[in-house]
Write a structure and sequence with these properties.
The chain is an alpha+beta fold and 655 residues long. It has four domains: 9-169, no CATH class; 175-251, Roll (Ubiquitin-like (UB roll)), CATH 3.10.20.310; 257-329, Ubiquitin-like (UB roll) (Roll); 333-651, Porin, CATH 2.40.160. It has eight helices and 29 strands. The chain has helices at residues 19-42, 87-96, 98-101, 109-131, 147-152, 206-222, 271-278, 288-300; strands at residues 3-10, 76-83, 137-142, 145-146, 162-169, 175-183, 229-238, 243-251, 257-264, 304-311, 320-329, 333-342, 346-356, 364-374, 383-393, 400-411, 416-430, 435-450, 453-469, 479-492, 497-511, 518-530, 562-563, 566-567, 572-583, 588-600, 612-623, 626-635, 646-651. The chain has a 16-stranded antiparallel beta barrel with strand order 12-13-14-15-16-17-18-19-20-21-22-25-26-27-28-29. A four-stranded mixed sheet has the order 1-7-8-6. Strands 2-5-3-4 form a four-stranded mixed sheet. Strand 16 and strand 17 (416-430) form a beta hairpin. Helix 1 (19-42) packs across helix 4 and helix 2 (87-96) packs across helix 4. The protein is globular and about 95 Å long.
Amino acid sequence: MRINEIRAASPPASMAGDAEDARRQARRRAFCAALLASTLFSLPPAPAQALDLFGWWPFGSSRGESETAVVDPFPYTVALTLTGGDADLKEKLESASLLVDDAERPPSGEAGLIARANSDFERLVGRLYVEGYYAGTVDIRIAGLTLEAALRMPSLPGPRPVPVAIRVSAGPLFTFGKLSVESEGPAGQVGSPQSYGLVPGDTANSDKVLRAEQRIVADLKATGHPFARIERREIVADHATNRLDVRLVAAPGEAARFGAVSVSGTEVTDPDFVVTQAMLPEGEAYSPRAIDRATKRLSDLGIFSSVRIVPGEQVGPDGRLPMTIEVSERKRNVIGVGANWSSSEGFGVESYWRRRNLFGRGELLSLEGSIGRLGDNSLSDLEYAARIAFEKPGAFGPLTTFTTSLSAKQEIPDAYRSRHVTLDAFVRREFSEHLSARVGAEVQFADETDVFGKRTYLLGGVIGELAYDTRDDRLNPTKGLNAVIFAEPAYDARGKTFMLFTRGQVAAYQALDDAKRFVLAGRVGAGSIVAPSVRSVPAARRFFSGGGGSIRGYAYRNVGPRLGGEVTGGRSYVEASAEIRMKVTDTIGLVGFVDAGNSFSSIYPDFSQGLKVGVGAGIRYFTPVGPLRLDVAVPLNPEKDDPSFAVYVGLSQAF
């Protein structure tokens, strides 16, 4: 049984009084609570909520009020005054108060107003606890009456709307005093209070205690105790010294190993496939981390809308704990459309159709198409692409994925015209949560026209790629690294030429504050093609710089070596970008950036030719599917066909 005990070593002066006063106060609190319960039963249903005064914020997002039309709306005005504390505390109290926060949404009748006031009492006391004030008082009056008096009145007196006054006295700020973390029995070992963030002399915020409890339980579960819990929480507020003494006693529970795994919720998916992909290590010690990894692996399949792994209720006689994987399958057919636009590259649209879970083991069939450079171009000068792809997870074990695709594409940047068809096949292998590799082969036929004339290529290559990704969010990262290394030895059967394509890129992200409102982002990339000459390399495979995703501000693929004033593309390149990202509100962000780079005709970058630099700024609108991006960039070293500025619109950050 869990026991929460909060005691006062001595009452504060503001609460002192004779025994009768204390009894009246206790009766008033009990009476108010009883009325609140009865009133809530008479109101329209609202989302379920919980209350823990020492972790006061598990309230639902709905704030406990129905969003439907209110019957008999009862208007009121409200003012909250604070004695002690600071402006920040007052702001937090107002945010916690239903009376203040929901003032624009009148409650249902006088009973609804009184119920809201009663709820506020617990909320405000809880907020004081969170901020470290344990001797504070809260006084709420409706039409000048205490809640107890308001309950006795047949109708609230005074004008309408009814005035509501909330008076809060913060009292002294408490700090941690004596601290103790213990574990029942020798089975589970716990650390010191300091190791869980409880430090004598620190401000005694109640959420620090709750976070410590969570970490204690997490540590015990990580040692193979799935039913670890906090058995006893003793909180003593010593008002003579303004210190909070804390004693936490944990119960590790029985140690367990992973047992048999079952699956529920599948309709099309093969349950054996789910168990195999989850990779829960049956027979090994229970581990929340193994459960998290299994949940992520199943979620990454893209065929489930929800994945939940539920331990059994008790450990079996053999020390094993059965596990149940509960899933909900997503719709199998998906159609999507997208659009992008930049002032230098024009307008583009794309669409796709996908069939998930094709044969019931996570397979994915995709049909994709896109058209680019829409606008003033003729139909023959449009860029287009079409692709059919098949993906099979778990092809050679749960950590592998097989993919194959057939694609056709026409590219018409200013430097060349290329039509090519590509057939490829790859196997991807995950080595860890962050490290993966991809190997495969491709065959490509290309028909191209550029500054060197018209030429065809028949290229075959073997591809290897290594990726390391620790980003916390792929669309809007605030920390981590993303690095990719690529290599492809290839042979052109038409030109009887061997060549080697290599490139690498690393991007890093670091938030500058705890709220992650300021983020530094940087990217560096370089590549080299070992080939007899630039001309021997297909134009679509050469390195060009410029445009969105490269050096913003310059025309698309318009930066690089030139012949007769026309860009030829190069056998090497280097690029770098830096951004400072600032989140102004929860939905609006600003970005300042600088991009630099160049492409070179030599196999290795020739820095004597200098770098092209673009600078600019952008706006981000954060949506549930990622940030919507609008960037404006200016080229500092423009050449032929480069604009004076460029505008880019897209979804997700630039990198």
